[in-house]
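Note to self: the last two entries modelled the partners one at a time, which told us nothing about the interface. This time every component goes in together.
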Amino acid sequence: MAGLKLEGISKSFGRFAAVRPIRLEIRPGEFFAILGPSGCGKSTLLRMIAGYEQPDAGRVFLGETDITSLRPQDRGIGMVFQNYALFPHMTVFENVAFGLRARKVSGGSIREQVAAALESVSLSGKSDSSVPALSGGEQQRVAVARALVIRPRVLLFDEPLSNLDIALRLQTREEIRTLQRATGITTVYVTHDQGEAMSLADRIAVMRAGEVEQAGEPGILYNSPANSFVAEFLGGASLIDCHLDGSGRVVVWSGVSLQVPAGFPVPPAGPVVLAIKPEGLSFAEGGENGVVQALVRSREYTGFTTAFTLLAGDRVLKALVVSTPATAGIVPGENVFFRVDWRHCSLYRERR
Amino acid sequence: MKFRTPGTLLTVSLLAAVFGICVVYPLGAMVAESLHAGGSLSLDHYLFLFDMSNRVNLEAVGNSVFVSVVSVIFSGIIGLFLAFVFTQYRFPLRSLLARLAVLPVALPPLVGVIAFLFVFGETGIIPRGLQILFGTAAPLIPAGGISGVVLVHVYSFHVYFYLFVSAALGTLDGSQLEAATGLGSGPWRTFIRVVLPELRPGLLAASALTFMSSMASFTAPLLFAGGKNFITLQIYSSKLNGDIDLAAAQSVLLTGVSLLFYLFLTLGPARRSGYARKGAGAPGLISPGSVSRRVMIVAAFTLLGIELLPVIAIVVLSLAREGSWTTQWVPSAYTAGNYAAFFTDAALWKPVVNSLEMALLALVASLAFGITAAFLVSRTKSRLAGTWANLALTLPYAVPGTVIAVAFILAFNRPVLPGLPTLLVGTFWILPLAYFVREYPVVIRSVSASLEGMDGSLLEAASGLGAGPLRRFRAVALPALLPGILSGGVLVLIGSLGEFVSSILLYTYDSRPVSVEILAQLRLFNIGAAAAYSVILMLIILGLLRLSGGLLASDRRMSYIL
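The predicted structure of the combined assembly is written out below.
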């Protein structure tokens, strides 16, 4: 099992800096997700690891070996493409066997290894099917089998589930996780879906505009986002520009003032950004201590939970609460009171 | 069949009548004639074709087939190579040169052939130049006979391969190539196992088209073959010898071969890949070494240079003083006189005006017939019926020009119907009619391609928003179809303006087209005049191409029309 080490790699296309110098260490056997909105440079980063792009600067290490100048086929890396990139004129078997044939593996051994790879993605019966005849999920699994069969030291995924419908996405996600656990292969997984990243990865790097904003275990990223971007992107937090008074214990915005609990880490007084995750808001009775008044703008009932959009002192806040008969009675246009749970909040000096 | 409105019924009847009179009747008359000998039904003419004691016909068929096969091979190699270089590499002037690469398709066949004759022929510029350079007794490596014909074919038909392969390479999925590379496949393995299968339908289509066109080729053998026999030449000489029955039998034979390939072309290889790709694949680029890259680009430039040579030669020769090009490698004296004559002698314009008139008539008829037919076919409910209707309607595409001429001679040298007293043979109208029959399939093909490409839900959306049929056609369908109509129309004009193969058998002196005039001047050794006419023809065609914008720039569109 080998880990990956990226030492300050960067890449520009013309004047556009797709990836700014990035340092990352991916541990052996780890499932590592690179998460970010489209255009953040995550795919370029992955393609530099795979060898399809040459970094402008920096080095890539696989284990102890510097692979920066190696060709893709010499890196010992398997890649699953976003559109699967299956060869449409070949059968499932031939697609999976392609890498082995290129490596001049003997016929008998090819049959064995392909069968094993197809077995591992539960496609044993589809060996002779043609690619266009497969469903999207099956094509995806063939792509995984094709990448695995050459026994790569690292497996790369480029948004592999983005072409599947939701139900299939959840199921395939689980299969990928199981497969990775079973093989223990170091995996780098690029996605823009934070749910996917959180559920799959041992660690996540959140990227934005070519830079890594924060890297770490999902729980740490979720509970202690390093900046407002991570809080918003990963935790779905509402960001509120407000003012922290001189005492450092009160934030104020357009007529609303909130008490910051003692011991809560605060930036220097002045203009600050308050990030509140949706689960950090709960409804309260008027007149209670520390409650804030707000106008209900919309309600979205999804069964177990109900999502509300609130307007408090002309700032929009998102709230997610467990559905109860009481929440069912709250309708748009109504004035309500809510309380803030500071365990789901953070304060930053500026917006990122 | 049920028709939704009386209007549709009327239109269909009209189309059927035109198709019946212009296509079915002449071809039927030809088949009937070929099966008649001495007043009764017989196979004598066909038996004569395969008569072992008289090998001329067999030899002609053999030559035609041999030349066609060789033409396919070399056109394939060169077209594939150019397509590869132009889609896979980025280099200066690329888009301009890519447009230049399809020039031979726009060159009228006769002009192309005589230009080749001037450059590579027995007394051509290059053999003469080599003779003078090396001081040999005779011109060196002149092209002639079989090799000359093949050379001309490759010059014209490699464009088919170029267009089909470019279109296929343009849609190649880059991540497939990356996947192959990542799995350890070298460039050759990737090309053969991954790229070539994607190109297969295009290569098959281009091969069929090239074979068809080579078999039907008349001009190149006529001017270049130097005594070698070809099936089209046999038809021509049978007709000239007054043996029209034999010409009919030979025509039926040639048409049979052509039709076979046409069926294969339209029904055989899947024109479009049925595998819908998901997500965005990177553009497909095959990364080569930088040395081989440079070598390949230089080779491509050289090929394009050779491609331009005939055009340059024709321009140079149009400026040659008559009699100044006998044993020199290029003419020794130059003059603008060949062009000046056009300003002093209005009669010289006659063939040009004739061609323009006849091409316009053919254009109007082709557009009216082609657009209507394409629309009606697209409205057939069953897919199979649509395919067959399309195939039948575009049948003349597969009929060689020589054959159409023979069929017309047989059909229209007597009144079509008792009520119509006119014979068409020997009148002005026979040529525009022949042009129409030869060219309208292009309109059907291009409009059908646009119709297929049009999203059906657009029309549904329009009608859902309250647009009536007329508004739907004008505001939604027409803008989507206009490129198809335009490119089809321009191809009709180009084809008709330079038409030679049918014209040479059907023309009357008063309505002789430019191509026939060029040949006449050439026969009189008025090389300058012949070249000047050729240049004028080329200029008109280039003007049309410019007018139509990026017609030839779009590889994909062209490969659907052809």
